[in-house]
Write a structure and sequence with these properties.
116 residues; transmembrane; TM262; single chain; transmembrane helix; mainly alpha
Amino acid sequence: MSWKDPFITITFPSKVIYTIGSILMLIIHTGVLIGDLYHFFVSQRGDLMSFHFTVVLLSSHTTSFYWALLAAIYTLQADDDVLMYIAMTSFALNFAAFLARFSMEYATIDYREEQY
């Protein structure tokens, strides 16, 4: 008798976990990006933008992009067409969100309040 027998374990394939994780992080990043664009263009309050979290946001964008890449690779190897389209869409959207965030950070660098 193994020690795992009394426990109920639920396992998901890694391709599904990576796809769901990258899509959830994409939704969070899209919300933060929309909030930043609103504060920059509509309310014009730069102090409410996410300048303080630039390193965290760009590193989580990179993680989300990497998870989408892993999901795309795993689904290409598994020959699952529906999940492959979802993973490739997540991959493309994560790349576009990263480029949008990076471009916005570069364009608004003059509006940052630097504290030393």
